[in-house]
Design brief:
Elements lengths: L1 E2 L4 H32 L3 H21 L3 E6 L4 E6 L6 E4 L5 E9 L2 E10 L2 E7 L6 H7 L3 E3 L6 H10 L8
Parallel strand pairs: 5-8
Antiparallel strand pairs: 1-2, 2-3, 3-4, 5-6, 6-7
Helix pairs in contact: 1-2
Length: 170
């Protein structure tokens, strides 16, 4: 069994993101809706509401990849906890066909990412941005690795924001 080792600075980052998510939801969305109900609808109110909802959606997209992962090699399962799944979720590694190891770029630089592939689609992401022991976790996942998969800009952005793309093996 192997547990992920999360970078220390990401605990602070996650706490700040959750704080901004809750504060933003209350301050901008709830207050804007109450103001619209009391004062009536105007273009600027709707614009502020859409902008705030977009900001909230962006924060959710960012924090959805932050997971606490436990890989049990003998049971062939991966258990993870996240903000969106606080009670955990168990994934059987036998349900996955392949894995892809690629790199992504952020403000902090380039980092490695492992995607687990199920039925031709990427289904689970393990980001090296958050973990000190990504290589060790990758070695515990005994799946066939797809090498040199060609990502174009559209696929890369789709993978970055949605986490799901169709993988066509050559």
């Amino acid at each position: 069994m192997i547990k992920c080792k999360i970078h220390r600075n990401w605990y602070l980052w996650l706490s700040l993101m959750l704080f901004f998510l809750v504060l933003g939801f209350y301050m901008f969305i709830v207050k804007t809706i109450v103001y619209i109900i009391k004062e009536g609808v105007s273009f600027s109110n709707i614009l502020v509401l859409i902008l705030c909802l977009s900001f909230e959606l962006f924060i959710i997209i960012v924090i959805k990849d932050f997971k606490y992962i436990i890989i049990e090699g003998e049971k062939k399962q991966l258990k993870y906890y996240s903000v969106l799944r606080p009670f955990g979720c168990i994934l059987r590694l036998d349900d996955f066909d392949n894995k892809i190891k690629t790199s992504e770029t952020s403000v902090r630089g380039e980092y490695e990412v492992v995607y687990l592939v199920r039925k031709g689609y990427t289904a689970f992401k393990i980001s090296g941005l958050f973990y000190d022991n990504l290589k060790e976790m990758d070695s515990y996942i005994k799946l066939k690795r797809i090498y040199n998969y060609k990502f174009n800009l559209k696929l890369y952005l789709q993978l970055l924001f949605t986490g799901k793309i169709k993988i066509e093996e050559e």
